[in-house]
Amino acid sequence: MAYTVKELFYTLQGEGGQAGRAAIFIRLAGCNLWSGREEDRDAAACRFCDTDFVGGERYGDAVALARAAADLWPGGGFPLAVVTGGEPGLQLDDALVRALHDHGFEVAVETNGTIALPAGLDWVCVSPKAGTELKVAAGEEIKLVWPQDGIDPDALLRLPFRHFFLQPRDGVAGSVQECVSYCLTHPGWRLSLQTHKLLGIP
């Protein structure tokens, strides 16, 4: 299978349970909840995405993509590949997970949870969107962008995840304070900040 990759880069994980950890990010193109075109945003299932996931470079197979990711790793440590998007579930498959493992990576995914994922992932982060059905209902962390109308954080706490993060919605006035207040009154949730934006790194 060929893969369309919007971005492939080395940086620090900026948010969630692995914040601060060095990682190769594999941003796969495409999403099932929004086309990525501004003219479609108001009618999209997810209207607040802040990521460009349209277009990109084609990789002919999983080994070629895993090799390109490995070439960016500086050596040593504990290699981590974060497969994200858009929605990575549109392209992520067993072959890519296996190829990344074969190149020494721990494989994490950041998904909206509406598409079933391949087996063998080491870290699953689900960011639920209101009005959608979760097909991925277990994993390492839920990262809920907040505020978000039409979604009940308390219901999510019943799902079998290890960590529950509330992340302020980018560009919404007062969202940081609202998340802080919610975490204080609902201590099952932890605050996640987009530290990469605060630090000015990719």
UniProtKB/TrEMBL annotation:
Binding of Mg(2+): at which residues?
51
Indicate which residues the UniProt annotation says bind substrate.
12-14, 27, 84, 202
Q: Where does S-adenosyl-L-methionine bind?
A: 48-50, 86, 127-129, 167-170
Q: Name the UniProt key words of this record, in alphabetical order.
A: 4Fe-4S, Iron, Iron-sulfur, Lyase, Magnesium, Metal-binding, Queuosine biosynthesis, S-adenosyl-L-methionine
Q: In which pathway does it act?
A: Purine metabolism; 7-cyano-7-deazaguanine biosynthesis
Q: Which residues bind [4Fe-4S] cluster?
A: 31, 46, 49
This protein's record includes keyword Electron transport: no
Spell out the family assignment given in the record's similarity comment: Belongs to the radical SAM superfamily. 7-carboxy-7-deazaguanine synthase family.
What PANTHER family does this protein's entry cite? 7-CARBOXY-7-DEAZAGUANINE SYNTHASE
Q: What is this protein called?
A: 7-carboxy-7-deazaguanine synthase
Query: Which organism does this sequence originate in?
Result: Magnetospirillum moscoviense
What would be the name of the gene that encodes this protein? queE
